[in-house]
Structures are given as structure tokens and as C-alpha cells.
Specification:
The strands form 3 sheets. Strands 6-5-4-1-9 form a 5-stranded antiparallel β-sheet. The protein contains 4 helices and 9 strands. Helices cover about 30% and strands about 20% of the residues. β2 and β3 form a beta hairpin. The chain is of the alpha+beta class.
Length: about 200
């Protein structure tokens, strides 16, 4: 209590003022409580701190990654045939061309003016010495000056393995295999044939 209030209380505590003192005390207490209530700072309850909510970027999380195709300057290698197959094909082609050239040369040489035309023989067939003539001389080279290896009697057969070739006298020669001996025989002279193909029955 303040000094003024205390003096006021002491004055009013005399016997004649007992009832008045009680009323004054009640009023004082009421005023004091009111003042205390006014001076007391009001505590306003505050809300609990809000937790920070981490929101995931759903779009970013669920977004399907896009595959980007990068262009490349490197071209796709084109499958090439195996080297061995290529070499085999080239070898076959060269062999075909060579055989064609040989056939053409053989055709030209078959038209030897010193022998009967057209020729009746070709490579790969079985032939024989014609009947009624002399034995054919099997020579080492396609010329009349070459060494005689063996004589082939009339009607004896042999395999034609090469030719024809023309010599300096324009005779047509064929390379034959007669009983294991390989040499050259002339197909004929002028219009007379010394050799003929064997007809297979």
C-alpha cells in the first residue's frame, strides 16, 4: 500500500468507523484487483510454429525422362561380303573370262587354212585315228618339226585335252592323251581328215 492509502486505512480503523473500514477495504481490494488486472500484460497464446512442409515437385518427380537422340556424323557401316568370298568370286570371274578368251582363240585357230574345215574335234571329247590312213604321229609340240613321241594306229582312241593351234604351215593341231602319253596330233591336211570324234552309242 502507498503511504496515503495506509494513512487512510489507519484513520478509518477507529471503533466508530468499523463498518466503514470494511466497506473501504472491500472497495480497495476490488480496485486493487482491477488495477492489477489492467496492468498485467495479457499473454496471448500463440500458435505452435508451423512445420515447414517440403513439397516435392510432383511434376518433376513423375516426369518421364525424355531420351534425346544425338545425331552422329559416323555413318552406319554397310555389311560387306567376306573377303574370302570376294576373292573367290573374283577368281571365278577371271577364270570365266580366261576360258572365254581361250574359246575365242580356239575358234580363230580352228580355221587353219592348211587343214580341212570345219574342225570336227573339241577339247574334252574322245577321238580316234580315221580308218584307211596312216598312223598319226604324236609329237611333243604342235609342229611337223617336233619330236615324235609315239604313233597312234588306225581306230585307236585318245582323249582331246587341249588345242587347237595352228603351225607355220597352217595345220590344225590338237593336244591329246594317248594311253598316258600327252602330245600333239594334226587333225588333217588339205581336205583329208586324219582324226574323227568317237560317237558314243
Amino acid at each position: 500500500l502507498t503511504e496515503t492509502e495506509f494513512a487512510r486505512v489507519a484513520l478509518l480503523t477507529t471503533p466508530n468507523h468499523t463498518r466503514t473500514v470494511e466497506a473501504i477495504l472491500n472497495q480497495f481490494l476490488t480496485e486493487t484487483q482491477a488495477a492489477a488486472a489492467t496492468n498485467t500484460p495479457t499473454i496471448t497464446p500463440t500458435a505452435p510454429p508451423t512445420e515447414a512442409v517440403i513439397t516435392e515437385d510432383i511434376d518433376a518427380a513423375t516426369e518421364t525422362p525424355t531420351r534425346t537422340t544425338q545425331s552422329s556424323n559416323t555413318s552406319t557401316p554397310t555389311p560387306t561380303p567376306d573377303q574370302g568370298q570376294t576373292q573367290t568370286a573374283e577368281a571365278q570371274q577371271q577364270a570365266t573370262l580366261l576360258q572365254a578368251a581361250r574359246d575365242e582363240q580356239a575358234t580363230l585357230q580352228a580355221n587353219c587354212p592348211g587343214s580341212p574345215l570345219p574342225s570336227r574335234l573339241r577339247t574334252g571329247i574322245v577321238a580316234r585315228v580315221t580308218e584307211g590312213g596312216l598312223p598319226s604321229r604324236l609329237r611333243a609340240q604342235p609342229t611337223t618339226n617336233s619330236e615324235v613321241l609315239v604313233s597312234i594306229p588306225q581306230l585307236d582312241e585318245f582323249m582331246v585335252v587341249g588345242g587347237p593351234e595352228c603351225d607355220e604351215q597352217q595345220l590344225r593341231w590338237w593336244q591329246v592323251d594317248y594311253q598316258g602319253t600327252v602330245g600333239w596330233v594334226a587333225e588333217g591336211v588339205g581336205e583329208e581328215f586324219y582324226l574323227e570324234p568317237v560317237r558314243q552309242e
